Amino acid sequence: MTGEALLSVSDLRLQHRQAGILLDGVSLTVKRGQILGVVGESGSGKSLTGLSVLGLQPQGQLSGTLRFDGEDLTRFSSRDWRRFRGRRAAMIFQDPMTAFLPVRRIGPQIVEQIRVHTALSHQAARERVVSLLGRMGVPSPEQTAQRFPHELSGGLRQRAMIAMALSCDPELLIADEPTTALDVTVQTQILTLLKEIGAREASVMLITHDMGVVAQSCTDVAVLYAGVVIETGPVAEVLQAPLHPYTKALLRAIPPMTGSRPERLPVIDGVPPSPDTRPVGCVFAPRCPQVTPDCAIRPPMRGEGAHRAACVLVP
Amino acid sequence: MKGVASRLGQMVLVLFGISVLVFAVFFATPGSDPSVRIAGRGASPEVIERVRHAYGFDRPLPMRYLTMMDHLFISRNLTSYVNHGQNVVSEVFAAAPVTLSLVLWAALFWVAGALVFGLIGAAFQGEWIDRLVSLLALIGLSIPVFWLGEMVNLVSESRFHDSWLFSWVPPLGYVPFMTSPLGWAKALILPAMTLAVAFIGLYSRVLRTDLLTAMQDDALRTARAKGVGPWRLWFCHALRLSGLSALSLFGLDFAQLLGGGALLIEVVFALPGVGHLTYQGLSTLDLPLIMATVLYAAFFVVIANALIDGLYRLLDPRMGRGSHDG
Amino acid sequence: MIFSATGRFLYRRKSAAAALGMLLLLILCALAAPLYAENVGVDPMESSLAGTVLRDGKRVDIMQPNDNPLHLGLSPIGPSWRWGAYALGADSQGRDIAARLLYGARASLLIAFSAACLCLVMATFCGLLAGYCGGWIDIIISRALDILWAVPVYLFAISLSVVTVGHDLSFGPFHVQPDSLLLPIGIIALIYVPYAARPIRARTRSLSSAGFVLAARGLGASSLRIVFREILPLLAETVLVLSPLIMALCLLAESALSFLSLGVQAPAASWGSLIHDGEGLIYSRPVVAIAPGVAIILTVLALNALGDAAQAELRARGRR
Amino acid sequence: MKALLQARNVARMYKLGGGAALRAVDGISLNVARGETLALVGESGCGKSTLGRLLMGFDRPDSGEILFDGQNLAKCSAREQRALRSQLQMVFQDSASAFNPRWTIGSALAEPFRIHGRPWSRQSLETLLNRVGLSAAFFDRYPAALSGGQRQRLNIARAIALSPRLIVADEPVSALDVSVQAQIVNLLRHLQAELDLACLFISHDLAVVRQISDRIAVMYLGAIVEEGETLALLAAPSHPYTLALVEAVPQPGKLLGTPLQGDVPSPLSPPTGCRFHTRCPVAQSRCAVDRPELQERPGLRRVACHFPLV
Q1: Whole-angstrom Cα distance, residue D224 to residue D42?
Q2: N or C terminus: which one in chain B shows less Cβ crowding within 10 Å?
Q3: What is the mean pLDDT of residues A81-99?
């Protein structure tokens, strides 16, 4: 099964009436058994890309293609979407505290999702919830299912969230900054869990701002900048030999944990373009140290094999 | 358990505060002497002095307060100043069922109306139907309730009484449930609807805003991502999340009405409820009667507050984890 | 800055502009009351049971034999479409309804406006003190407001009015006339203090825990400086937005009190007392009660619409 | 080296409803020398922000003393404390709420001078803006017009306006993107060297802390578990918790380590003995009963562990 494209997004664009152009050509592919890291700074459109896959993006003009296992998502009716969400692709969010309904117990919230999508009886669904929670590494799952979200620690809440997402055996799990609200020691636990899920249960699309997280838990990566995917490829290759100047600069800006301490951290001058004033050519050109006259035209993805970047410097 | 005890203590404290407040308003307002009022305008100083002695107004205030509380709550034999020998406490208890019936009917209308209008407004946000509902709610909120009562009387009792629409309307007044359940309902439907109009306006607006806020909530985004359908989304998620603030508002208003807030409606529709009783007391300056009704009102408000608080804790598990602010 | 902001607000929110226009019109009408009374030649305060009025070229009695066979006695003259005295008819005392409506507007609007101002001043004081100081000051103020809140508002207002309105009152060196408007103003202001103080207190609390207040403390600013320079200017927006809504409530309360003859004292008029006058004539001359009711609805509606628009504007500003 | 800021056995407890008490800070002693940067590191709920508030004098400790330049902050009057503020400034994490939205940037910057009655001119404020890398054109604009990174620069400008001697920075870069974060870290280091500024840097991000600090104090559940010189401490942690933190930092070119088990226990009911023993991979029976004291170790290191790693 591995290797076959599960989700392919190509040239996805989203224009919002007030906010302007939010996505401006997002192309990426999630293959079965893959953990794709979607990485970018705030405002780069990484969360929107995740939401668009479930049809939850804010109102606006959406164009491009979204294919999931051969089906065209852009043609989905609201009924199709309801059957798709949570059943075939599920999503977990940054803050598990607010993502759960605060006034209902954890168990019934997961049961609800199971019963929306399957014909399982209430009792069977409940048993399934307990076994799911156990599989996610939640200690004493039966008691935990009876708890309210605020009674759990951040790590347990996120595990419960993942259990809910996996409750209907989806083929794709979209994780939107799943560890940002958590402590570092707990972050490692959740990343380990996601890695296991990616290897065994579902393909994962891990949306994050942290290159370190991508490096440790993803197989592939797509780098987003200002609503455009500027580089994709296997994690090892992209991190070892980044092609795009933005990816290079981003990696350099991370303070090192070993070796000598640099006098100054390398920085990227300037700020990302706002959604209403966007450059016509390469979106990174205004900040790029290696800008050439060719950058005035938006470069397509170039490169050999799986590792490709949208930059004129790539042979 | 400790929480319940402290809650009870607070209730007693509030009730005590209210009784002192009401007592002070009637007997210790600076510059206003109750004996002058009872003796009437232009009474001679001797008469005023006699009144003062007869009613015990020459005794110190705390003593008078204690005596009145004793008559009200312990011996329960407080008698009217105007109609001597009439027991005020039993009068209040006789009037209570009328008010209770009226307010229950009104609550029925206003909860139903607010739900319908609020949900319509939120579901069709920004469309013409939402604007229409908002305008109607605003108008409902702006009508003085006693005037609306007059107009309803005018239409249903006089101008269109003979039409098919209002021919069933009985003459003004109250019919006890035990006498005739149908007559009871007939007598109360129009007053209750009149009373409910302003509340429908208020609550549908509150509910609409809360629903729209809830729909923006992260938890609702999760629900959509789960594949929950629109009906479940509105009723099981949004309403569950947003109904809480409307609920606490409801408890307070319900209790206020029960405690005599429906006075104007009772006067206009000639219903002999607690509000009407207070009105009588006011027009004859029957201070013990007013004292009794106001305290009865406050009692209901305090009890209802406590009940709503408990219900809130039950429905929102986040409450009740200590007094941690935030 | 303030004027241009107001201008932009009115331009963006047409409903607010319409509401403001309506209110200005009402105020103008109230101001023009003596003008009307002199022009058509009526005295709005004197009863004139034996008077006559020119109608359709004929001089007719103000109190006419009843046209409804079921009602006995005299009934006042009805409305007419022509401009002139008694255009809206007369009340049971033979007074011109239209003139009384205009004079009533003066009393109603004055009471509502003054009561709202007084109420907001008191509420801001309480809310600011409770919200900024916190601790036991907050507990005492909040509990005191809870106690006020536990008495149904109208019942409280009525009780206070019974004790005070219509009696000679002396507060130390101050003497209040029995029919002074100060009494209803003070009473109505007082009963809505808890209502207004709650949101003000909540806003103060959130403002005083905001980052910039902490930053000001970190810079070494004193509490007074923080309250007056950092908190009050932002709190003023909340109070300003609240004011039309409070004024609407005050107007309704005033009309209710006057309807029960506990507000404005006869022969002076307010919209509420006019409805009271109309109650007795409700089946024969309903216009006597309808006209002041419509006036109240229009005013309250305009105030509520203005308040709504201001609230929406404030929310939008908060988002930006 | 004379300590500029000194905390001795500082403790702060918050009483919650129902008789529960939260020991946010539980007997902490530390020193910050002139011109030095001490980083306070720990996970959420470890009390590092509470300690920051105590050191700033926003809150008073239940016991212990805080000496700033020899003066006890916990004891001096409100007036004296306000006067000390010009020496002691704070930079907050949330730059969006740190400025009154109705004030222009210029008036926000002038405020510290007005409060302390110091002279200022438009020109001096514009120089201040330039110093933190902001254009003087922002002078008459509102804070809402700035991006997150720019606002954090403005925050720093306000903090250094009165030439303080110590800055307490509470998670100043956590809300920022990596590239912006690098800019702010560079700016802070540059200003510190230029102004001989001491800094207490509160953060959960070890990579940033490594870049900016001279010494690190690691906190766990209200107490310091390890303290030492930055590079040495991160290269060879003595406390198992420090090691776990270092291993958990996600970095390119590093494999995902074995995570610590469980979550941080609730500070409402901390474990007995060593606070960390419930999650410690090398804990022994003694750790559950006997609470280790912070002990001096060679190489200017202090560790609170019965079985230190190095």
Answers
A1: 9
A2: C
A3: 91
